[in-house]
Amino acid sequence: MGKPAEAILRLSEEIVAGLIVGNQGIGSRFSRMRHFLMGSVSESVVRYARCSVMVARKDLYDRPTA
């Protein structure tokens, strides 16, 4: 319950996480302005986490292999 970024950060503190791994999700599909107005879970987690954070670009997996 609550805001996703806050819940992720709270849990990472509780379990003393060494690394948080996630992806950009649907926020990356919107324009920069809309992305700015909507906020970003990944951006908040990266900004406020006390441990390392790895964010994968989801669109890399959607591309056909050459």
Automatic annotation (TrEMBL):
Query: UspA domain: from which residue to which, for each copy?
Result: 2-57
Domain of life of the source? Bacteria
Q: Which parts form a coiled-coil structure per UniProt?
A: none
Alphabetized InterPro entries for the sequence? Rossmann-like_a/b/a_fold (IPR014729), UspA (IPR006016)
Pfam families assigned: Usp
Q: What's the protein here called?
A: UspA domain-containing protein
Source species, please? uncultured Rubrobacteraceae bacterium
Which taxonomic lineage is given here? Answer: Bacteria, Bacillati, Actinomycetota, Rubrobacteria, Rubrobacterales
